[in-house]
Amino acid sequence: MIARVLMGVIAALHAYIAYFEMFAWEVTGPRVFSTFPPELFGQTTVLAANQGIYNAFLVAGLIWALLIADREWQRKVGTCFLLFVMAAGVVGAVTISPRIMMIQTVPALIAALLLWRSARQ
Q1: 49 near 68, Cβ under 8 Å?
Q2: Which residues of 65-88 are buried (b: 16+ CB within 10 A; e: fewer)?
Q3: What is the DSSP string of 58-101?
Q4: What is the distance between the alpha carbons of residues 40 and 86, in angstroms, rounded to a whole number?
Q5: Which member of 17, 22, 69, 83 has the lowest number of beta carbons within 10 Å of its beta carbon?
Q6: Is the pTM of this model over 0.85?
Q7: What is the total count of domains within the chain?
C-alpha cells in the first residue's frame, strides 16, 4: 500500500513538472531554476515543452501501473517506470543540480524497493 501511495505522489510530482514545462515555463521555470538567467526562459520554451512531454509519459506509465489489478504485473510495470524516473533524476542531478537526486531519484528508489518488498510478503 505504501509503495502504491508513493508511486501516486511521484506521478503527481511529474504531472506538475510536465505542466510547468509544457504550459508555464516562462512563469514557473524561473522560480524552480532560480540559478538560470531570466532571459533564458523565453528562448527555451519549445525545448522545455519537449522535456515536459517526457515527464507526461512517466506520469502515464505510473498511473497505468497503479491501475493494473494483477499485483505481479503492477510490480513489473511500476518498477519499469520508477527506473525511468530514477534515470531522469540521476541525469538531472549530474547536469542541472544535485538536489534533483533527492527530489526524483531517492523517492523512486524507495517506492521500487517497497514494491519489491511487498511482493515477498
Answers
A1: no
A2: beeeeeeeebbebbbebbebbbeb
A3: HHHHHHHHHH--SHHHHHHHHHHHHHHHHHHHHHHHHHT-THHI
A4: 27
A5: 69
A6: yes
A7: 1
